[in-house]
Design a protein that fits this description.
This protein is 25% helix and 27% strand. With 77 residues, it is α+β, with helices and mostly antiparallel strands. A 3-stranded antiparallel sheet has the order 1-3-2. Helix 1 packs across helix 2. It is globular. It starts with a strand and ends with a strand.
Length: 77
């Protein structure tokens, strides 16, 4: 399982993952493929309080602001 920040970038990709929309399946599968997994089993929004210190709070990877959330992508081999 990968937990990634959902940082809106104007392309709509993040919103597909964040909302669980059908377009998110292709994004989640691509993410899994890029990490050498076969496919995505699921993708869903994760509450910030459910993540324990694993996400950066500063720097380019940090998730900031009210529009920022996290998405969990579960991949299979």
């Amino acid at each position: 399982m990968f937990v990634v920040a959902n940082n809106p970038d104007g392309y709509g990709v993040d919103r597909c993952l964040n909302t669980g929309a059908p377009c998110g399946a292709a994004v989640a599968n691509s993410y899994c493929h890029s990490h050498e997994f076969a496919q995505a089993l699921s993708y869903e929004k994760v509450d910030r309080n459910d993540i324990t210190g694993a996400m950066p709070t500063t720097g380019p990877e940090a998730c900031r602001g009210s529009s920022c959330s996290y998405v969990a992508i579960t991949c299979s081999r």
